[in-house]
Amino acid sequence: MKDFAPQPPAHGCRNAPVLKERGQREVFCGLTGIIWLHRKMQDAFFLVVGSRTCAHLLQSAAGVMIFAEPRFGTAILEEKDLAGLACANEELDREVDRLLARRPDIRQLFLVGSCPSEVIKLDLHRAAERLTQRHAPHVRVLNYSGSGIETTFTEGEDACLAAMVPTLPDTNERQLLLVGALPDVVEDQALGLLRDMGVAPVRCLPAHRAAETPGVGANTVVALTQPFLNETAAFLERRGARLLSAPFPFGEEGTTAWLWTIAQEFGVDADTFARVTDAPRARARKAIAAAAETLRDKSIFFFPDSQLEIPLARFLTRECGMTAVEVGAPFINKQIVGPDLDLLAEGPVIAEGQDVDLQLDRCRAARPDLTVCGLGLANPLESEGMATKWAIELVFTPVHLYEQAGDLAGLFARPLRRRALLSGLEGAA
């Protein structure tokens, strides 16, 4: 029987020593996750309970046009709220009533905590319970924290989905649950591949609409699509679901390993798997090869930002021929990213957490060909002559599965091509 599992290197990084740093961090806050979640969940609304700074962040990140009516907003905490001169709960109730009266299409309302609401100890969990009783059964109100005090920007999605898990209905149906917010085009591709293999039924969390919300139970098998869903995975396991262990579907190899793990769980034979995946696998390899011409033998350094760093390092080193100098991640949960660590050959520094000044020193000493980091670090490093890639772009861009594998590699190749072009122009001048 043919085995589609990737061959690991002689020595992987699962048991490699981890450099744990606890210092100043340079990351976006968890509110940023609203930008992709509100597009995914068609009848949900995300109400940030925060300051004008929170509102400006979301408007800037989303690029919302003045005549658009998005499915997120900010309940502004004014000075009188922060000083305790007004009842914040009464004002919140009034804003929610006004919102739901104006937007009868809303079926799920998320109260999203921020730094200001947490500083004044506003209990949004109790507010959500109170407002659910008030607006049920038409609207369910949930809450989670997107505060930058405690979260990096992808943890906003994790906190949101984790808040949903306790409310999911019970089911004994044997099913596959795909967990993680994927762009619709990517989700459709995943569902199409699984359908062609005969894997059914397949549900998604988050669902597009509240009426499509999946159930969960002891016969639910979970395939994570994002490596940052630590709390969500733990909550699903508490509900009895079983988590599949697989590399994440980045690149041809990662996608094949992820799909093969699912296929084996649901009894798909190797011939069927090959029939469904051979053509997209070939397209992915061809698309990756075009970008790999630029990436091969180049070094890369990851600052901790999105929690995609370990799967991406696996993809870039194994499929694009790059050398990883350091792979930093905000948190490392080996239950979730262990399969990717198994495939990542030993050599790079594996770092968890951040002390940004110390990590900048290591990056400058290494002088990698490409540095993956947040927006706050990119411009300073570019001014020092170093090519950078914005980590946040890897979350906003469709990068999963076969048809996006070439685009994923291209995201890393473009900064190097741009750097080479600018160097050529400077030399000609």
From TrEMBL:
It catalyses: chlorophyllide a + oxidized 2[4Fe-4S]-[ferredoxin] + 2 ADP + 2 phosphate = protochlorophyllide a + reduced 2[4Fe-4S]-[ferredoxin] + 2 ATP + 2 H2O. GO terms for biological process: light-independent bacteriochlorophyll biosynthetic process; photosynthesis, dark reaction. Pathway: Porphyrin-containing compound metabolism; bacteriochlorophyll biosynthesis (light-independent). Its EC number is 1.3.7.7. Binds 1 [4Fe-4S] cluster per heterodimer. The cluster is bound at the heterodimer interface by residues from both subunits. [4Fe-4S] cluster binds at C29, C54, C115. Keywords: 4Fe-4S, ATP-binding, Bacteriochlorophyll biosynthesis, Chlorophyll biosynthesis, Iron, Iron-sulfur, Metal-binding, Nucleotide-binding, Oxidoreductase, Photosynthesis. Residues 29-409 form the Nitrogenase/oxidoreductase component domain. GO terms for molecular function: 4 iron, 4 sulfur cluster binding; ATP binding; metal ion binding; oxidoreductase activity, acting on iron-sulfur proteins as donors; oxidoreductase activity, acting on the CH-CH group of donors, iron-sulfur protein as acceptor. It comes from the Bacteria. Its cofactor is [4Fe-4S] cluster. Pfam families: Oxidored_nitro (PF00148). Belongs to the BchN/ChlN family. Component of the dark-operative protochlorophyllide reductase (DPOR) that uses Mg-ATP and reduced ferredoxin to reduce ring D of protochlorophyllide (Pchlide) to form chlorophyllide a (Chlide). This reaction is light-independent. The NB-protein (BchN-BchB) is the catalytic component of the complex. Protochlorophyllide reductase is composed of three subunits; BchL, BchN and BchB. Forms a heterotetramer of two BchB and two BchN subunits. This is Light-independent protochlorophyllide reductase subunit N. The gene is bchN.
